[in-house]
Amino acid sequence: MKKKLFHQLFSSEISTSQKTDRLFSLDLLKAMSIVAVVSFHSILVPKTTYIDSQLYVDILFSPLRFCVPVFLVIYFFLFEKGLEKHNGCILSLVQRRLVRILIPTVFWFSFTALLKLINKSPLLEVFGGILNGEIFTGGYYLLILLQFIPIFVILRHCFSKLINIFIIIIIQSGVYTWIYAIHLSSQTEQIISILKSIDRPLFIYWFVYIALGIYCCKKWSSIVKLSSQLHIYVKAIILVSYSILQWVEAYYAFLVFKGNITPFDYAMFSCLLSVLVMFICFSSINENQLNPLFIKLVSILSTYSLGIFCINGILYQILGSFSFSLFSDTNFNFPEIIILKLVCCFLLLGISMVLSVLLDRIGLRVVVR
């Protein structure tokens, strides 16, 4: 019965994605990234219930911060690939891309705003959430894409040269250095307060990923070749080394920002490094190396990554508001909060995935794919 239900829900979507001209390794990276995103939004209890373990939890899962950088790079990779394929109708393709992001942004922002207003949230709070992209958890990602699309179109030809990539990486690294140095300023509190009010959509945190997306598209065959030449043990060493660097930097960021890292949790050198690590380690993987069921799961997660991203962010806020009153006086130790996080992660991922498929089936494909 379960196999039949699974087949009914997903068979047509999988067959459709297999017929299109897709790069499986990018689908795999998108699938891994959406699982990582959900894992970050899966602790449904208040931080006060595991305050003694917060540092250890944040550090343990910090290597999964590759998710948003990789998502951005893949988005602009595919954007560049589309422009190269349809070079004669650039304006039309750009308009389609803008509409394709604008529709789910308006839909999910409006839907969440309506829920908040029904729940009697202050109008000013709802309006502020729309502006900074935190109307639902993770909504800032859609605002980043909307502001970056015109910039991408204007500057895309500048990022086909390696020297320009180095320059943009140096500039981005300078921004991250400045962020870490904020605490040395006499106006630390004022600067951090302003940055936190703007939250994550701020341009300075993300612009390097436009350049990396374009460059990876231009050099894709070389990246795949390099990845295929690396032994699996070498890749394991690279991944472990990245994880250690992410743990160290996450610990330092935790100390600098006194445990309240948002919105600087992706403004990290190791997040920038994560793109290189993930593309080098996974770009040469193809379907022939994997189990068919796993390939189907990757296809589903990749295809519905947008819907899962938005629905999970909304569910996280709704369920989190309920758990705040239920668990406000509870204390979780480290093993308990890890188990709770993993259980909630799989539940939220499953619910978000099924709801995305159902919304697709009832005609709302444009808001989940």
User: Low-confidence parts lasting 5 or more residues at pLDDT below 50?
Assistant: 15-20
**Number of extended strands:** 0
Structural class: mainly alpha
| Gyration radius, rounded | 21 Å
Choose one word for the global shape: globular
Q: Characterize the largest beta sheet: strand count, sense, and whether it forms a barrel.
A: none
Strand content: under 5%
User: What is the helical fraction, as a range of percent?
Assistant: over 70%
Order of helices and strands: HHHHHHHHHHHHHHHH
From the N-terminal CA to the C-terminal CA, the straight-line distance is: 27 Å
Quickly count the helices: 16
Commentary on this structure:
The chain is mainly alpha-helical and 369 residues long. It is 73% helix and 0% strand. It has 16 helices and no strands. Residues 15-20 have low confidence and may be disordered.
List key phrases describing it.
369 residues, mainly alpha, 16 helices, 73% helix
Detail the topology: elements first, then pairings.
Layout: H1 2-19, H2 24-40, H3 54-61, H4 67-85, H5 90-118, H6 123-132, H7 140-155, H8 162-181, H9 188-198, H10 208-218, H11 220-229, H12 232-256, H13 269-282, H14 292-303, H15 305-326, H16 334-361
Helix pairs in contact: 1-14, 2-4, 2-14, 2-15, 2-16, 3-12, 4-10, 5-6, 5-7, 8-10, 11-13, 12-13, 15-16
Q: What is this structure, in a nutshell?
A:
Helices cover 73% and strands 0% of the residues. The chain has 16 helices and no strands.
